[in-house]
Predict the structure.
Amino acid sequence: MKYDKIKKNSAQLLSLTGFTAEEFEAFLPTFKNKWEEYHSHYTLRGKVRERISYGRKAGLLPLVSDKLLFILSYLKNNPLQEYHGVAYGMTQPQCNRWIHLLSDVLVKTLDTLHELPDRNAQRMQQALRGYKDVLLDGTERPIQRPQASDRQESCYSGKKNA
């Protein structure tokens, strides 16, 4: 899959990445800067670079836009790595390596743009002050139930086999 072909079909780009072409193009320069910052210091295997790298045009993901398409489509659609690798012409171990590498670059990009979720409860309370209704999207996680039967009831979720 190449970005140059996908960007011509806006519905396909949106379904693959969750971005419109304009959003993708606006996000790309910051991602490119973070990629070049990483790639100038480290190899693709994560080792410290000893000599200058000249971007090869024949690699699996030759363009930065292809790299961004790769990681965004993986994160949005969550396919098996084997399947995602086949779509990009690579093996599963290569796909795994690219996913881990580009995920880190994407997080640094989002941090630069101040788009990472806030993990500070006090700042969250301050930001939500003044709002009457707030909807939270959460995941129920299993917990260790207490041994005492009177305390077990408070941990019971109401679901069978939970």
